[in-house]
Amino acid sequence: MIKKLSLVSLFTLLPASYYFAQTTVSAYLKDADGKPVERAEVDLKGKDNDVTADKIGYFQFVDLMPGHYQIVITKPNYEIKVMEFDVMDNEKKKDLGVITLYSTLTSADQGLAIIDTDDDSDESSSQVSTVGLLQSSQDVFNRIAAFDLGFYWFRPRGIDGRTGETMMNGVSMVKSDNGNVDFSNWGGLNEITRYPEIATNHSPSEYAFGGNSGVIYKNTKASEYRKGFQFTQSLTNRNYRNRTSLRYTSGMSKSGWAFTLMGARRWAEEGIQEGTFYDAYGTYLGVEKKFSDKHTMTFNFIGSPYRRSTSSPSTQEVYDYRGVHYNSYWGYQDGEQRSERVRKGFQPIFQLQDFWKINEKSNLWTSVSYQFGKDKGSRLDWQNVQNPSPTYYRNLPSYYDSLDPNASVMNPDGTMTTAQDAFQTSLAGWTSGDPNITQLNWDRLYRRNMQQAPQNYYGQNGKRALYYLVNDVSDDKIWNAATHFVHNFNDTTKFLLNVSYQNYRSEQYREVNDLLGADFVLNRDPFAATNQPGKSGLFNEGEENVTKKEGDRMTYDYIFRRQEVKVNPGVKFTTGAFDVFVSAMAGYSTSSREGLFKHYLYQDSYGKGADYDFWNYGLKGQAIYRLNGRNFFVYNGAYYSQAPYLEDLFINPRVNGSVAPNVKNMVVNANDLSYVISTPFLKLRVTGYLVNTENETTVQRFFADGIQLNNTDDQGEQTIVQSAFVTQVMTDVKRRNIGLELGVDVKLLPTLSVQGLANLGQYVYKNDPTTYFASDAAGTFSNGLSYLNLGKAYINNYRQGGTPQKAFSLGFRYNNPKYWWVGANWNYFDDNYLDPSALVRTESFIQNNNSGTPYYNLSESELRRVLEPTRLPSSFFLNANAGKSWVIGKYYVLISATVNNILDNKKYITGGFEQTRNAKFPDFVQDTDREFTLFAPKYWYTQGRSYFINLQFRF
């Protein structure tokens, strides 16, 4: 009966289609076993006549005018299918044949679902091997790496995310100061941004040249979202506890207008880490105007204000006392929790995008974007008093244990006692969790400030702040313009051209947030009296007002500027059994710093500095050899240069305009070769890769309270720097990342599949780079520069930090025909290291300043012992997920749940860093050999068991 109705419907509509010289397009939907897929929704993008497949999987569109079309096919528990086709003049009927939908695990809030454009039903098509392989939805390795291993900070191939490209509506979202992407700018808008197109690793992309860690391209056209409302409610125990969102899409009206609006909120009074909170909103407005079948324009507004607190890293001593959820950044004030580290901001994005189909062979997309706003991060600061952090090394039991038991020390309340008694008091407080010892004591900070006797400072009378809160502010203004041109010479050859321009301006400064009961704070270096006796100590010499109140700027104020142009042509073609994609790049950037404060130690702190120009070039290539419709060899190669980002170019831009010595364009040479099997029953990829990086400049900045460094300035005056904000620079860094990847998905039954992943990597430094040291409290050294050459850092063959270098995963997925699913994964990580601190592995580290020779009795074996790489423990985890969906008339309901780290493993360290306080060998060894090391590495631990429950309702 259903077949008869379908045929009656078809033949009833055909005469009208023929009369108007329009076309009927039809197809059948089937699963991997050849069975019909019923009730799948088929959306014709840009049109308002979406259809639903019948019980035999048949659907059709009628009365289509000649032109280019795209359909999106969706059904719960099946991968999304996107197809494009052309309707030609005088074409009465177009049969798309059989379209295969593959079953998949559908998680409602994985945040990154990939569009699949592969169509295995047509092995003769030139797009079979290319389109699908460029997406990661059919690549089990990338899927597991993103959704399961990524939760534990696994980085494929050990590649820094700063070498990738993230694009929103045609323009880059990468920040020019540090190369990072601030995902909080569209936080919570998962249902808007969740279907990007991706070129993984260093493979070429149609939209940008990219780098080593892929290209992510997101497009947010208002008409491309499902018409109607979508409500989502999520519960979790991660950084936030609740998420609520609502999206509405009007669909394309007869007059050619479409609107999509969305609002979302994520919040928690306290997250999984102690003393943290979360309050973030997400808003989106998309407006699309269709002028004709060949011309469309969109406007997109994205704005996500946020306010949230962060958690601290700690030494193992602290975690042993208080557990992995401990956070030192908060304390009680009048009985309420208050955090010193609060990040808040609002940097909205406005974008216009024009889509023009020039003719049947050519398309031109043009985008203009403007983003502005401030990002603020607060922190506690102090002057002429001890660091109030409960984890400051002088506030921990290990410090008192390192002293003579009978030595006199001061209690936090100002009274005196012996080191032995202080140790017992501190140990008892830490083991019992006494908040007066283990957390910030806000009431004590207020009391100390308010007990200050009013005095006259720089013409102002009042109480000077000993403790106060500051905000580090980035005030950004970013213009982007880009164009994307495509010309199809024929069915097998395509030319692409991307041109982009970015104008980046960011004023970065510190402002007073809260004086904690005092009247003002002095814009003066609190360590100047000891580090630089006889100097003014003023952070901004010549200013009229040195006494700063809430909202005033202090410490530093400067402007970063950068302009960058990139040209990226590419060609894709098919010849015989090969699909080839070649992409080139030429780029130019100019960068500068303008200081708005005149620092008391640096002549080049004030005014606009020189422009630093860099040219970049690159070439990428991909060759796919089709053994047949299911087996492929894939080669990806890239050779390109990348200019340093602003924070890598300038050593310490807060106080001067000095540029890192010998800074060059980083050069990357990346190659991989894969064997791929893609069948309805087996999907497999095995890849060998090699990535070499040269000429890299790395900059690390940290506050060292307790460091001991001697400085002789250009006048011959010697000072001892004891506490300062310091910078460590390595130039001409060489890295090698080599390894094997294996991803496999075996369908044992139509409803049951087994998936696995293996990553065997070795990510090492391949030379001994030259290391430089600078300090904002040292001033100009005897060499006339603001930095010292400490010689080579002996880190050749040290492992790179930041990610496990071995990873394995094994799991299963069961998809029931009644629209429910369950899955689980076992994940294992090993060979995880902390990045080696360069400062303690330099020639300076072993040199005696008095004799100018290495320290007496220093042996190679002893040096190797104390400088052994910090290896983190291996760990394994179990994850599980399940869900159920219902279609009730026109309504769709989905509920899903994910549990990560089911066994509540709290021994896995996700990251950290080696502390650099003792810059000379004798002091370093003395501290290392203590029972409790004072300056042990600081870690971040995994958060333990976590869950995510999601309810979605479409109507």
From TrEMBL:
It is found in: Cell outer membrane. Keywords: Cell outer membrane, Membrane, Signal. It holds the Pfam family CarboxypepD_reg. It comes from the Bacteria. Coiled coil: none annotated. InterPro entries: Beta-barrel_TonB_sf, CarboxyPept-like_regulatory. Residues 1-21 form the signal peptide. Its main location: membrane. This is Carboxypeptidase regulatory-like domain-containing protein. It comes from Chryseobacterium profundimaris.
